[in-house]
Design a protein that fits this description.
The complex is a heterodimer of chains A (477) and B (346). Helix content of chain A is 75%, strand content 1%. Chain A is mainly α and 477 residues long. In chain A, strand 2 and strand 3 form a beta hairpin. In chain B, the strands form three sheets. Chain B has a six-stranded antiparallel sheet with strand order 3-8-4-5-6-7. In chain B, strands 9-14-10-11-12-13 form a six-stranded antiparallel sheet. Classes of the chains: A mainly alpha (477), B alpha+beta (346). Strand 1 of chain A pairs antiparallel with strand 13 of chain B.
């Protein structure tokens, strides 16, 4: 019995195969065609249209304006600038508030409590100065801008405007071998690279999606803006006359951001021509109808799905890093701490690239979040140059209120204009933070592409810093 | 502190050495032309590759009913005749072939081995055509490289993923896992007479130089061909509305199946990219050169023969154009719009 069914099955399969050979090449297309014609016949019989033309007419009028040759791009820049301005201006106050509560007020309180219950000094160091401090710092600097940026961005998306941005920008990105929607993931990356990487899901073509993920790190994220602004003010703004200092340093920061966009396009082009050449690629871009945004739903989804999600991931990575930061500054072998050993050992190598050992160590141990790079640099500089009376002790990250005081600490640490410039470049071109790296792995499910996204920018950063430094010294500036 | 000596080197010298290092790395790693790519191409073919390639060739001869001997094998595999004779001895000792004087033919084991290799080759070609962006002219070479290194299980998994394709992208049937293959049908283009109508079923992908030229001419399996003139050294025809002519040598690389029912398409179809904003047209066909994901995406959006499209907006930078189809607006790049044939409404 079994044997006959098996035999029958074989026979049917063979017959099916022969039939498929006879049907020829266009068989699939014919099937789809007939499905569509059947569907439209059914629709014609059953669906009644009423006033559809009108609704579409408004859409097309708006579309004609936002995609027009002369108004399209200015409108886009204006809207994006507005979003960024609202984010920066709006985040200032809540960030300050959070930082004063979590860092200036709660941190000493926790330390006192630790002393009160006779917690050993190393334990309070690891838990409060290390883990708590890193988490508090990440929350204070990351939460407010994200809580403003993401809802605004989601509103634009919900409104239907963002697909039009992709539609307008596609020409540029096509020339770089990428998808127009990369303009959106890039803009999202200016808020947070991890969110930008997640946003690359909107790109349905495998090759272009990978390109968008790998190059997202070239968008200067919200954790790096403060670093750029601070260093530009100290080292570049100070070269100009006091009236122009603000404009010059702002110009330098924008210059770095534009350089990031430039690298993003060049690297996209390079990737699409080399390692990603063979990946599948398809382009269609749906332009959905405009619709009034659902404000509450937008607020909810962008706060829960994006802000809290990213923040939580960042905190998870920040806590162990805080512990490591405290430990390297406090574990001594002989007279020197681990941090000092590393700084002394890596200094010659780092100077070769116009950086220094402190910067290298800071970028290694502050990998969970770019927000804590400057506090870590300040702490390590004070530690390694044995300054007294500045900061909160070894292993405790800190920030100073006045820019002049920070400049003083950095200059004592041996920083020059060249160091500042290279830090700005390196801050743009280095590995993504661990939250982003983890997100890239989650999104691509591939160790290979995670490694490429991690090491490509850092290699690029070292190359650019090396040539900047050597050219600088060659011309004897 | 001897690491510090590096800082005392002249910056000019360092700049120069930095540039040299980059140049050397580029020379080694440059795709396709770099040292590494050259080296991996130069690697001699392994015994297994030679064995499988020769079986494939012998099967091809058998399928086309062409004679096959040691010299033609040596020529096809680009090896010396001595090496070919050693290879044949090896094949004979493994009972994969039978020798009869000069003629070589496959044994049953040899034939099923060859069919397995061909199945792997054609499934991978199908995969490259539909699921990757590898150039059309490179499908064959890539499949040749990969067919000796993949397992049958991986290939079967791939075939299942693609819905068990039965044709490779050149129009050749893919042997079943049991090793059956339909009889060859159709005639080569050089045998057609004036006024005959046919459909391209196969384009021979070897040698690559001829295949590349046929691809450049825009020919592909599935295309309709209408012979307009046959001369001593030139065959002229209309292919999907385009005037075309080939020498008999080139025409012999194209296999055509005769069609009688349909009206010949003599006039050239217009392309979607020529549609100006505000105009409407009916989709006639999507070119078979638009494959895989791209084709599926377009069809999912409603770009199928018979549906109405109208161009509604142009992007600020000019390139993607928004088309209205089935009640939605879809942005399509001009590169893809060039592959969609339309018929303007009168």
């Amino acid at each position: 019995m079994d044997k006959t069914t098996h035999h029958n099955r074989e026979e049917i399969l063979t017959a099916a195969n022969t039939a498929r050979w006879e049907l020829g090449l266009d068989f699939h297309d014919t099937v789809i065609e007939s499905i569509y014609s059947d569907a439209s016949q059914i629709a014609r019989k059953t669906v009644k249209l009423k006033g559809d033309k009108e609704a579409y007419a408004t859409d097309i009028t708006i579309d004609k304006i936002v995609t027009s040759r002369w108004l399209g791009f200015p409108l886009m820049f204006l809207l994006l600038a507005l979003v960024f301005w609202l984010t920066i201006a709006g985040a200032n106050y809540p960030s300050g508030l959070l930082s004063s509560v979590l860092i200036d007020y709660l941190h000493p309180l926790l330390k006192q409590a630790a002393t009160f219950i006779h917690m050993p000094w190393w334990m309070s160091g690891i838990l409060i100065d290390g883990a708590y401090m890193a988490a508090a710092w990440v929350i204070a600097v990351m939460l407010p801008p994200m809580a403003i940026f993401f809802p605004l961005f989601t509103l634009l998306e919900d409104l239907g405007y963002l697909p039009r941005v992709a539609f307008n920008m596609d020409n540029l990105f096509r020339k770089a071998g990428a998808h127009g929607k990369q303009a959106l993931t890039m803009s999202m990356g200016f808020g947070c690279n991890a969110a930008g990487v997640v946003a690359a899901r909107v790109i349905d073509s495998p090759r272009e999606r990978l390109i968008a993920i790998i190059t997202n790190n070239f968008s200067l994220c919200n954790g790096r803006w403060p670093t750029q602004i601070l260093i530009a003010t100290i080292f570049i703004g100070s070269m100009a006359s006091p009236q122009l200092a603000g404009v010059v340093s702002a110009g330098a920061v924008v210059g770095i951001a534009v350089l990031g966009i430039f690298f993003s396009l060049v690297v996209s082009w390079g990737l699409s021509k080399t390692v990603l050449r063979g990946e599948a690629s398809a382009f269609t871009l749906e332009l959905p109808p405009y619709r009034p945004p659902r404000i509450w739903q937008t607020l909810y989804t962008s706060l829960i799905d994006r802000t809290i999600f990213v923040l939580w991931r960042a905190i998870i990575f920040a806590v162990p890093a805080g512990i490591v930061i405290w430990l390297v500054a406090n574990v001594h072998i002989g007279d020197l701490s681990l941090a000092e050993y590393f700084i002394n050992w890596s200094d010659p190598f780092a100077l070769f690239f116009g950086l220094n050992g402190v910067i290298l160590l800071a970028y290694i141990i502050a990998i969970p979040a770019n927000e804590i790079v400057i506090p870590t640099i300040l702490m390590l500089t004070v530690l390694s140059s044995k300054m007294a009376g500045v900061g909160g002790g070894s292993g405790v990250m800190f920030e100073l209120d006045s820019t002049a005081d920070i400049a003083g600490v950095l200059q004592t640490g041996g920083w020059t204009l060249l160091t500042g410039l290279n830090l700005m470049l390196f801050s743009l071109l280095h590995n993504p933070c661990s939250t982003t790296i983890y997100t890239i792995y989650k999104e691509t499910k591939s160790l290979k592409w995670t490694m490429v996204s991690t090491f490509l920018p850092i290699v690029l950063g070292f190359v650019i810093c090396f040539f900047t430094t050597q050219l600088w010294q060659f011309f004897g500036w | 502190m001897n690491t510090l000596f590096i800082l005392s080197i002249q910056p000019g010298l360092l700049l120069l050495s930095g540039l040299i290092i980059i140049a050397i790395l580029a020379w080694i790693l440059w795709p396709q032309k770099g040292g590494l790519a050259r080296f991996s191409r130069m690697k001699a073919r392994s015994q297994r590759e030679l064995l499988e390639d020769s079986l494939k060739y012998m099967f091809d001869c058998e399928y086309r009913k062409a004679p096959c001997d040691m010299h033609s094998i040596a020529g096809n595999l680009d090896i010396s005749v001595d090496r070919a004779s050693l290879l044949l001895e090896h094949l004979f000792s493994k009972e994969l072939i039978t020798l009869d004087d000069q003629a070589v033919s496959l044994s049953d084991t040899g034939r099923s081995y060859a069919l397995r290799v061909i199945r792997v080759h054609r499934i991978w070609e199908r995969y490259f055509a539909d699921e990757t962006s590898i150039d059309q002219a490179d499908w064959h070479n890539e499949a040749c490289r990969i067919e000796h290194n993949v397992t049958m299980e991986d290939t079967e998994k791939l075939a299942a993923q693609m819905g068990h394709p039965v044709f490779d992208p050149h129009g050749d049937p893919i042997p079943t896992a049991e090793g059956t293959l339909p009889e060859p049908t159709g005639v080569t283009l050089n045998h057609l007479k004036e006024g005959q109508l046919g459909r391209v079923t196969h384009m021979e992908d070897e040698p690559k130089s001829i295949y590349e030229q046929l691809v450049v001419l825009g020919l592909y399996p599935g295309m309709q061909i209408y012979i307009t003139d046959v001369a001593e050294n030139k065959i002229s025809f209309v292919a999907d509305g385009d005037e075309c002519s080939l020498t008999p040598l080139f025409a012999a690389h194209i296999t055509v199946e005769l069609v009688s029912a349909k009206e010949p398409v003599v006039s050239k179809n217009e392309l979607l990219s020529s549609l100006q904003v505000g105009e409407e047209a009916e989709v006639v066909a999507i070119s078979p050169n638009c494959r895989g994901q791209q084709r599926r995406r377009l069809m999912d959006m409603g770009i199928v023969p018979g549906s109405l499209v109208s161009a509604v907006i142009k992007s600020a930078s000019g390139d993607p154009v928004g088309y209205r189809v089935l009640g939605t607006t879809v942005g399509i790049r001009s590169r893809e719009a060039d592959l969609i044939f339309i018929n303007r409404k009168k």
